[in-house]
Amino acid sequence: MISARTAADLRARIREWRARGNRIAFVPTMGNLHAGHLRLVRHARAVADRVVASIFVNPMQFGPGEDFASYPRTLEADSAALMEADADLLFIPDIDVVYPRGPEQMTRVEVPALGNILCGASRPGHFSGVTTVVAKLFNLVQPDTAVFGEKDYQQLVIIRRMVEDLNMPVSIEGVATVREPDGLAMSSRNGYLQAGERASAPRLYQLLCELRDRVVAGERDYAAVERATLEALARAGFEPDYVSIRRAADLAPPGHADQALRVLAAARLGVTRLIDNIHISAG
Ligand code: PAF
Questions:
Q1: Pocket residue to mutate for ligand 1, from 26, 29, 60, most atoms within 8 A of Cβ
Q2: From the CB of 29, is ligand 1 less than 6 Å away?
Q3: Total of domains in the chain
Q4: How far is ligand 1, taken at its centre, from the CA of residue 38, in Å?
Q5: Contact status, residue 186 vs residue 178, Cβ threshold 8 Å
Q6: CATH number of the domain enclosing 37
Q7: C-alpha separations of 270 from 2, 102, 197, 234 in Å
Q8: 276 C-alpha to center of ligand 1: Å?
């Protein structure tokens, strides 16, 4: 696996591959890789000739008081894992490669209709930080395909919308969430959980499954099931942010005719903000 730190090094290699007619798949990450990330890399491997992964802890998507400074930086282990998953190139830009005039002066990309709801409502600016860095990385890597996890479902829908709105020539592929044996969605932030919190954390997924089962069984009072799930989360020791049933394609509030739904939730356990979501077929 090759490493590139500058745009020039990255582009030289991409040019060479393009000249040979290779298709390129891209997996952007912030590092601290777990099995969920590696599944994205393996998916990329299956759909393209060349796989590029990036590691960049993007300051623009962290709010004041969030964990930018303490976000785990584990480059050595990440490189070994990417090599094992058969990535061809690891792009590890320094901050001035991504934001040459600093994040404050950076041209921004925003998806306002989707970036200010759900997680965006409690993390103002977060999704504009994500879309800005992803747009920049797409311009640098110029992939045919980019792969994202469904674990960050709102992020996935927002990136699809950005690509559609700006006619970016990249196809976006979503890959199913990888879970621990007890159901907890894998996340770089799970490492923040204290032992007791880790024991309670799978309850989030269990409650989303119970909500899904009620909707599949015919429940159509979505507000009532969302409320019941919020209350159950609070009883389990979480500080819930939201539980929301949305249309899967565009995160709009669902009408009664909508069948492909997604329930999304965010809740704190101690200092750790957990998010999760699952598909619902309300057929
Ligand atoms: O999902 C992530 O790890 C980040 O939001 C991303 C897409 C790498 C952008 O920084």
A1: 29
A2: yes
A3: 2
A4: 14
A5: yes
A6: 3.40.50.620
A7: 39, 32, 7, 12
A8: 16
Q: Ligand 1: which residue has its CA nearest to atom 2?
A: 29
Give dist(CA 26, CA 41) in Å, integer: 8
* Distance in angstroms (rounded) separating the CA atoms of residues 270 and 252: 30
95 shares its domain with 201: no
CA of 97 to the centre of ligand 1 (A): 17
Question: pTM of whole model > 0.90?
Answer: yes
Same domain, 129 and 21: yes
Asked if 32 and 140 sit in the same domain, the reply is: yes
CB 250 within 8 A of CB 281: no
Give residue-wise pLDDT tens across range 220-270.
Answer: 999 999 999 999 999 999 999 999 999 999 999 999 899 999 999 999 999
On whether both 59 and 24 belong to a single domain, the answer is yes
Which of 38, 130, 140, 188 is the best mutation target for the ligand 1 pocket, counting ligand atoms within 8 Å of the beta carbon and taking the most?
Answer: 130
Q: Tell me how far apart the alpha carbons of residues 173 and 159 are, in angstroms, rounded to a whole number.
A: 10
180-193 pLDDT, tens digit each: 999 999 999 999 99
Say which amino acid occupies 116: N
CATH number at residue 239: 3.30.1300.10
Cα separation, 164 vs 174, whole angstroms:
15
Q: Say yes or no: 128 and 71 in one domain.
A: yes
| Domain finish residue from 150, 175, 200 | 175
Domain holding 52, by residue range, is 2-175
Residue 2 near residue 89 (C-beta atoms within 8 A): yes
Tell whether ligand 1 has an atom less than 6 A from the beta carbon of residue 197.
no
